[in-house]
Amino acid sequence: MELKRLVLSDDHQKALLDFCLVEAIDWHFIPPRSPHFGGLWEAAVKTAKYHFYRAIGNSVLGFDELRTLLCLITAVINSRPLVSNSESPADLDVLTPAHFLNGGPPASFAEPDVTQLNFDRLDGWQRVSYLQQLFWSRWKEEYITSLQQRSKWRTAKPSLAVADLVLVKDENLPPMKWPLARVVELLPGRDGVSRVAVLKTSSGIIKRSVNKLCLLPLKDAVESQASNGGSMSGQAA
């Protein structure tokens, strides 16, 4: 709570704003619960969390051990190749995130393999090395196949309109418990296509990506029912 009060204090907000202005920092936020808006980095986060949980298992680490391990895991992820350094077939050098973060290629000291030792008999640094090497072994083999497929929305699709009634998808709730909301504003991207909506719910104002919303009423189904003079019972909503 003390940290939250500090972050929300007027003095801290002004200091943060002044720093961002001096450093020419412009923040861009993705909508809540819409990780596909940050496909590239969210894929890396997903992979890191998955293999981190598998590597650490039930191990109990101190704060310094955990912090050191996370730094080592970050270095592993930032060593992944992004693009070749040149178009020459003889040049096998690649650019990695570490090149842009550190100003040069990733560097690390050679460590002895401790993954064959009994984890319970290792000291603090060896425990961290054990978990880092375990993470590296699993991550390097499964990273490519675990990457999320990223695709662009290149074709125009029917969009929402202000005042439309929608259901807000929530993966943590069954569909019958999804909250209702009213569209109060649409936020277009640089291409003019609205992919984010501002919604008014019973609990307040929220933002969601369009693909997390179910438009109500189902206009196509209602028009089909009216034209056919039939019943919609038994059709999926």
From TrEMBL:
MF terms (GO), sorted A to Z: nucleic acid binding
DUF5641 domain location: 125-216
Lineage: superkingdom: Eukaryota
Entries under InterPro entries matching the protein: DUF5641 (IPR040676), RNaseH-like_sf (IPR012337), RNaseH_sf (IPR036397)
UniProt-recorded name of the protein: DUF5641 domain-containing protein
Biological classification of the source: Eukaryota, Metazoa, Ecdysozoa, Arthropoda, Hexapoda
Gene: LOC117184929
